[in-house]
């Protein structure tokens, strides 16, 4: 195909604004998929994606329309996968910005617009769901014009569900988006914008060729990881794999390699040829680091090896997943896993439980902290139980994020109040039409658990939230420990700000009191910082009526039996063990 007949574009939008439905209609209109084979969310291959109605893994597809080759990338909409989205944008020359006519512009819409503008993409604004009774086409058009600075004639009005206006979208892609540019570089360079592991074929890469071409059987070099491989098969996705002899400049396609893990070919890396390697990689590659950590433990220790094997298999196709073995006195052997965010954690948990039939106990998610010791050493800790002796610590740094919340103007006051309760700093408020964009900074640890739920309930479901990692800041942080019947439970320990420790300690022991069942002896639940207890609740003992068998007689008989019972309870208190239910370890996820 000639270069000027190729168009590479992607669809960007907030979650649930109709990206995948529009992709379905494009596949239908271009005849890429036969009507009898068509199903909703056609490009979403995982059951989880269909159930949740979100795109988790991006999917490229090649379509032919009016003698033009249209390469579409359907991207995820969630903030956890924003690096993948940024790499997909780099692989394109243009993007369809889809906005829901009933919801208007949301936080992720704005974030994706910034990413698209940073990548110098041509944007085509599309307002979707115009067939719904609640659609506010005029109001949402004004919002889009205010955000992009475009004219009303530039906006396309469609209903991806019914197919209305989709032909105009295809024509606009051909007329308004530029073809790929031929660069001056002679050496072959291709951008990896996604990679996954296939059990039968090895690592499969989704690539965009920027310079040169990659032929079948070519010897490849991955530049950032220095891995070498062979292109066993190359071709395009239509949407199934269609092999070809080569992929040329400007084209998007797949390469089946002989690599053993996606860690050798990460998203954003550059492929070149071993015989004539390029001097400079394509810009923008970064090693994605997880910043949310949680302990995964099997309910029965017999399943530990199965859990370990399952995570190793998952990590073959998810290079962002990092894990280390962990041991807990209460929960036994498990694995501590690093994630890109809470949705990423939720997806991995669901996949482990469904695909590998595991019953899991998950500890409270935490983030990583940089601990500076008095001897000048810097230790990176992933959980509170790893914190060194406080006497050796000079300072502790925690990660802060830059966030944006988009809410209707009516909810600005409660939203700012919510930010301040999370130790956040409100930076700026800007208004467009009926909405407000609130920029703020806040410590990541305070937003990990129930921040999004609280935002949704405060704003009657209208608030949306987007964030990115900013930097690490020195704060007055302490380790908050919890004791059950006098024994410390390491898996419950938290890193908190000193000003919040008292409130949080009291909250958690009250919650534990509801969860931990009664024993035959009194159980003390305590929160402590170092050696100082700051909160306590008692789970009262079962009281068996030992005097029920006594009929009349002297009162001293009654006292004697009760004294014997009290003595037995004291002995139980010394030697008795408390069985802590699994819900106690996820107590922070749903504090309300």
In short:
With 592 residues, this protein is α+β, with helices and mostly antiparallel strands.
Explain what you see:
This protein is α+β, with helices and mostly antiparallel strands and 592 residues long. The chain has five domains: 3-176, Rossmann fold; 189-273, Elongation Factor Tu (Ef-tu), domain 3; 292-362, Elongation Factor G (Translational Gtpase), domain 3 (Alpha-Beta Plaits), CATH 3.30.70.870; 370-475, Alpha-Beta Plaits; 479-586, Elongation factor 4, C-terminal domain (Alpha-Beta Plaits, 2-Layer Sandwich), CATH 3.30.70. It contains 13 helices and 30 strands. The strands form six sheets. The protein has a six-stranded mixed sheet, sandwiched between helices. Strands 7-8-14-11-10-15 form a six-stranded antiparallel barrel. Strand 26 (477-484) and strand 27 form a beta hairpin. It is elongated. The mean pLDDT is 82.
Mean pLDDT across all amino acids = 82
CATH superfamily of the largest domain: P-loop containing nucleotide triphosphate hydrolases
Number of helices: 13
Taken as a percent bin, the fraction of beta residues is 25-35%
Main pleated sheet: 6 strands, mixed
Number of domains: 5
The number of distinct β-strands equals 30
- Just name the CATH architecture of the largest domain: 3-Layer(aba) Sandwich
What Rg do the Cα atoms give? 28 Å
CATH class of the largest domain: Alpha Beta
Q: What low-confidence regions span 5 or more consecutive residues with pLDDT below 50?
A: none
Shape: elongated
- Major sheet: order of its strands? 2-3-1-4-5-6
CATH fold category name of the largest domain: Rossmann fold
Cα distance spanning the termini: 58 Å
Helix content percent band: 25-40%
Structural class: alpha+beta
């Amino acid at each position: 195909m000639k270069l000027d007949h190729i168009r590479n574009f992607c669809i960007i939008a907030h979650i649930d604004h109709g990206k995948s439905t529009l992709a379905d209609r494009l596949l239908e209109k271009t005849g890429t998929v036969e009507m009898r084979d068509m199903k909703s969310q056609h490009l979403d291959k995982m059951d989880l994606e269909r159930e949740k109605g979100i795109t988790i893994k991006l999917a490229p597809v090649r379509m032919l329309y009016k003698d033009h080759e249209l390469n579409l990338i359907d991207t995820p909409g969630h903030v956890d996968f924003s690096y993948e989205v940024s790499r997909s944008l780099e692989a394109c020359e243009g993007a369809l910005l889809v906005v829901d006519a009933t919801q208007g512009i949301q936080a992720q819409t704005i974030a994706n617009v910034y990413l698209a503008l940073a990548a110098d993409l041509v944007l085509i604004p599309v307002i979707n769901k115009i067939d719904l009774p609640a659609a506010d086409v005029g109001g949402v058009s004004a919002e889009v014009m205010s955000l992009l600075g475009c004219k009303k004639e530039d906006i396309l009005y469609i209903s991806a569900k019914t197919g209305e206006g989709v032909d105009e979208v295809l024509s606009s892609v051909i007329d308004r988006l530029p073809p790929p540019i031929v660069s001056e570089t002679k050496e072959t360079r291709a951008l990896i914008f996604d990679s996954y592991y296939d059990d039968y074929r090895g690592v499969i890469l989704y690539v965009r060729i920027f310079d040169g071409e990659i032929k079948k059987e070519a010897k490849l070099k991955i530049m950032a990881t220095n891995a070498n491989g062979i292109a066993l098969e190359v071709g395009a996705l239509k949407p199934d794999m269609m092999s070809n002899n080569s992929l040329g400049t400007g084209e998007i396609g797949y390469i089946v390699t002989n690599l053993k893990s996606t860690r050798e070919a990460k998203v954003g890396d550059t492929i070149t040829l071993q015989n004539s390697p390029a001097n400079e990689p394509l810009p923008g590659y970064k090693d994605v680091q997880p910043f949310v950590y949680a302990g995964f433990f099997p309910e029965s220790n017999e399943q530990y090896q199965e859990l370990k094997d399952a995570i190793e298999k998952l990590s073959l196709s998810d290079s962002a997943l990092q894990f280390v073995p962990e041991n807990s006195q209460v929960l036994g052997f498990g694995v501590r896993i690093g994630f890109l965010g809470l949705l990423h954690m939720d997806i991995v948990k669901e996949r482990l439980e469904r695909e590998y039939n595991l019953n899991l106990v998950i500890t409270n998610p935490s983030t990583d902290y940089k601990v500076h010791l008095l001897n000048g050493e810097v230790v990176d800790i992933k959980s509170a139980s790893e914190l060194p002796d406080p006497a050796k610590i000079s300072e502790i740094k925690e990660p802060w994020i830059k966030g944006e919340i988009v809410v209707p103007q009516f909810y600005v006051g409660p939203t700012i109040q919510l930010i301040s309760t999370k130790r956040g700093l409100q930076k700026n408020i800007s208004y467009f039409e009926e909405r407000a964009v609130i920029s703020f900074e806040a410590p990541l640890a305070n937003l990990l658990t129930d921040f999004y739920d609280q935002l949704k309930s405060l704003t009657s479901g209208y608030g949306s939230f987007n964030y990115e990692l900013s930097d690490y800041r020195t704060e007055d942080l302490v380790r908050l420990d919890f004791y059950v019947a006098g024994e410390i439970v390491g898996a419950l320990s938290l890193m908190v700000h000193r000003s919040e420790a008292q409130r949080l300690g009291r909250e958690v022991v009250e919650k534990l009191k509801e969860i931990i069942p009664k024993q035959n002896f009194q159980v003390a639940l305590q929160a402590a910082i170092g050696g100082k207890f700051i909160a306590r609740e008692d789970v009262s003992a079962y009281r068996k009526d030992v005097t029920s068998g006594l009929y009349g007689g002297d009162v001293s008989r009654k006292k004697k039996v009760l004294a014997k019972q009290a003595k037995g309870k004291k002995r139980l208190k010394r030697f008795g063990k408390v069985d802590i239910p699994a819900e106690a370890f996820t107590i922070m996820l749903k504090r309300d």
